[in-house]
Amino acid sequence: MTFKALLATKTADRIETQVVDFDETDLMPGEVTVQIDYSTVNYKDAMAMTGRAPVIQTFPLIPGIDLAGTVLASDDPRFAAGDRVVANSWGLSQTHHGGYARKARLSADWLIKLPPSISTWHAMAIGTAGYTAMLGVLALEHGGVRPKSGDILVTGANGGVGSVSVMLLSDLGYRVVASTGRRELADDLRALGAAEVIDRNTLSESGAPIQPPRWAGAIDSVGSHTLANVLAQTHYRGVVAANGLAQGSDLPTSVLPFILRNVTLAGLDSVNAPQAVRLKAWERLAGDIDLKKLERVTRTAPLAEAPAIAIEILKGQVQGRVVIDVNA
Fold first, then answer.
1. I need a surface site. Which of 145, 187, 200, 304 has the fewest CB within 10 A?
2. Domain covering 129-267 assigned CATH 3.40.50.720 in the classification
């Protein structure tokens, strides 16, 4: 049997993608076969499909680091036909066929049963971006940052991680300051819950290693000078959760925020996070995320449009989340 899939191939240094008829016998090993309903496009997907970073490590490969759907067959007792499941990251789109297809065969260890309140569409509106945002919330809470602690900064606030972070934090009672380069979308960020919107340029240039404190904590998707300035402006015993490198992978800072203000820099790894951490994140998402707000910042696109959306993401032209309907 064959099914539609978006396949990435590489010729010399160029990655090309096209929708093909993929043979089910060519799926990779795994205990669980899933009928995929939806996937999504994250920043990492964009880097994978464009070759901006060496995410895909073997070719040809089906990209897509996220998928949600229904179990068709399982050799693992933890899952049965009919179970609704979600998979985020692991080896998907790196060494294992990912979510841009109508079927997948996966390790049972990579799957989580969806909470009853979250549909497969909502699971991909959340995706790795939203799951990472929740990891950021958990990191702030673990570090003792509470709504009464002070303002929380979210950088890259119009992106996937940023927009969900604004939603989650504001609904949990935090006063959220959103940093964005798209000031024309400030009203949209306020509708998600941001109390204040600032221009990203106020943080993107080289700054002093220690600056007047402004934030009790932050979720940063940008890296480089932006993250350095965020650290320099964080209050005593504040927590900064870092998950991205939109500006760059460098971190031009010093030890001063850490030894003078006891600031914690918490890294967020969504790829290899233990299953217990993932379960906690999805349980919290089921109770804490406002699905109506999420719907307002999410659009649905067919499978063939995923590569074009990837380019838009890298250009900073995509707001919020994009769900990929792999059956459209």
1. 187
2. yes
**Alpha helices, DSSP H, located in 81-215:** 120-142, 160-171, 186-192
DSSP code for 269:
-
Q: How, if at all, do strands 264-267 and 234-242 pair?
A: parallel
What's the longest Cα–Cα distance across the chain? 63
**Whole-angstrom distance, CA of residue 32 vs CA of residue 25:** 14
Tracing tokens 């490969």 back to the chain, one arrives at 61
Q: State which residues of the chain have pLDDT below 50.
A: none
Segments making up each domain of the chain, as ranges: 2-114+291-325, 129-267
Q: How far apart are CA 305 and CA 311, in angstroms?
A: 10
| Whether pTM exceeds 0.70 | yes
- Return the closest-CA partner of residue 112 out of 243, 269, 274, 268: 274
